[in-house]
Amino acid sequence: MSKIIDTFIAPPCHDKIETLYQDDHLVLINKPAGLLSLSGKNPQNLDSVHHRLAKIFPGCTLVHRLDFGTSGLMVIARNKAINAVLCQQFSQRTVTKVYSALLCGHLDNNEGVIDAAIAKDPALFPLMSICAIHGKPARSNYQVIERFYLALEDGTSLPLTRVQLTPETGRTHQLRIHCQLLGHPILGCDLYGGRLLPGTEQTPRLMLHASELCFDHPISKERINAYNASPF
């Protein structure tokens, strides 16, 4: 197997992390787009959610990650014991995650399910690929919120669909590659066709936001239903 070399250097992120809730056990944040979840091996990729929060909450650990370009809700454990409990909830799929996204074009159906296994392919890094043989099961639900046209500076208009995406599994790049498979990539997605249509090249960010996160508090067992409105 060929060795994967990551040459990605993240541009500086000047946006702050918004802390939505905190107690002795966990921190709930709104991650800005353009910030790594975890620091990379390259020293130039030191800035990340974990790097910033570890200065405020020593010993904190990431329970899950959001892609560099994705904004929205993340829960961070303040110690390893809490991390283990929360990770178990993610692996048992008792955590509900809902995303808001803008897709290129107008979807035909108002809702649907994308069921397509996803695999890592070192030859294509950092891209993932749809592969029924070597891939891990991946399933995403989509629901159309609205179809509209975005007026562009040159006088043309760009057809877009606002959707709510609910992944049942948590594969790397799952929503991005599943939307591409649907024929309607997420606007601004550089890896999976979201900058190919005329008028999409200058999109300022990946139009994907983690808007809802529901889980059980590891200590009180109370169900936490967090919501953070999409910025786009």
Structure description:
- With 232 residues, this protein is mainly β.
- The protein has a single domain, classed as Pseudouridine synthase.
- Helix content is 12%, strand content 34%.
- The protein contains 3 helices and 12 strands.
- The strands form 2 sheets. Strands 1, 2, 3, 4, 5, 6, 9, 10, 11 and 12 form a 10-stranded mixed beta sheet that branches. Strands 7-8 form a two-stranded antiparallel ribbon.
- Strand 3 and strand 4 form a beta hairpin.
- The longest helix is centred in the middle third of the chain and has 12 residues.
- The mean pLDDT is 95.
- GO terms for molecular function: catalytic activity, acting on RNA; pseudouridine synthase activity; RNA binding.
Topology:
Elements: E1 18-22, E2 26-31, H1 49-56, E3 61-62, E4 71-77, H2 80-91, E5 96-104, E6 111-115, E7 118-120, E8 128-130, E9 139-151, E10 157-167, H3 174-181, E11 208-216, E12 223-227
Parallel strand pairs: 4-11
Antiparallel strand pairs: 1-2, 2-4, 3-4, 5-10, 5-11, 6-9, 7-8, 9-10, 11-12
Pfam family, one: PseudoU_synth_2
Family: Belongs to the pseudouridine synthase RluA family.
Organism: Providencia burhodogranariea DSM 19968
Main sheet characteristics: 10 strands, mixed
Count the domains.
1
CATH architecture: 2-Layer Sandwich
Strand content: 25-35%
Which radius of gyration do the C-alpha atoms yield? 18 Å
Mean pLDDT: 95
CATH H-level superfamily title: Pseudouridine synthase
Assembly state here? single chain
Report the top-level CATH class: Alpha Beta
What is the H/E order?
EEHEEHEEEEEEHEE
Summarize the amount of helix as a percent range.
10-25%
Uncertain stretches of 5 or more adjacent residues: none
- Secondary-structure-based class equals mainly beta
Number of strands: 12
Q: Give the overall shape.
A: globular
